[in-house]
Write a structure and sequence with these properties.
Layout lengths: L5 E8 L9 E8 L4 E5 L6 H8 L7 E6 L6 E4 L11 H11 L4 H11 L2 H10 L9 H15 L5 E5 L7 H16 L3 E6 L2 H6 L4 E3 L6
Parallel strand pairs: 3-7, 3-8, 5-6, 6-7
Antiparallel strand pairs: 1-2, 1-4
InterPro entries: ABC_transporter-like_ATP-bd, ABC_Transporter_VariousFunc, P-loop_NTPase
GO molecular function, one term: ATP hydrolysis activity
Protein name: ATP-binding cassette domain-containing protein
Length: 212
């Protein structure tokens, strides 16, 4: 019997004692190699749950078992801030640095995971500064690079990964996510778009009324 990568049992949480609970008796389990969604309306607590999972919030009741190390978790928030003076190709350099990869090693990974459409779109924006490209292009680039180059990661937490990304970039992103989960990585992502889950028959938890 395999040990779940993440297991939450009877979790309750409130930001303050006198405030209504954000979560009440919430339980879930995520296995290694799963692609699984978290569906909920804006304000339902999806981002708060991700903060709890990554250890950003600790004053909760119940149990939260993380069977992975801090270095095996990559958490990408909905809002990703970058210096506008950076060129997009320098974002690649930064991610290489964070993951202790040489440029040659990085391109080996990119060639393995990206198809021609990825490279065509990357080539169009790589020399541009980040402030000159759209919000969606910027998010697509950062998420795609992190998914591809964070080789030590076992769990990716993606908070609304497709927000602001146009349909073509979105489809490419899902193709990449399917590739890395096929390689044994786990992707837990939040969304408020039901069609995004049903189109590819992605299993999901639904966050509603303080629980799942």
């Amino acid at each position: 019997m395999t040990i779940p990568l993440l297991e939450i049992n009877s979790l309750s949480f409130s930001y303050k004692v006198n405030l209504p609970p954000v979560f009440n008796n919430l339980s879930l389990k995520i296995e290694q190699g799963e692609l699984i969604g978290l569906l909920g309306e804006n304000g339902a607590g999806k981002t708060t749950l991700f903060n709890l999972i990554r250890g950003g919030v600790s004053n909760y009741e119940g149990t939260l078992k993380r069977n992975f190390s801090g270095g095996e978790l990559v958490s990408l928030p909905q809002v990703i801030n970058l210096s506008g003076t950076l060129r997009n190709e320098e974002v690649l350099d930064l991610i290489c640095c964070f993951n202790k990869l040489t440029k040659k090693q990085a391109w080996t990974e990119l060639n393995h995971k990206w198809n021609d459409n990825f490279f065509i779109r990357y080539d169009k924006i790589r020399r541009k500064r980040t402030y000159t490209v759209s919000y969606g292009e910027k998010r697509w680039l950062i998420i795609s690079l992190m998914l591809t180059l964070c080789k030590n990661a076992r769990l990716f937490l993606l908070d609304e990964p497709t927000v602001g990304i146009d349909i073509q970039y979105r489809m490419m992103l899902w193709e990449l996510i399917n590739k890395i989960t096929a390689d044994g990585k786990t992707v837990f992502f939040s969304t408020h778009i039901f069609d995004e889950l049903t189109r590819d028959k992605i299993p999901f938890y639904m966050l509603s009324k303080n629980s799942i």
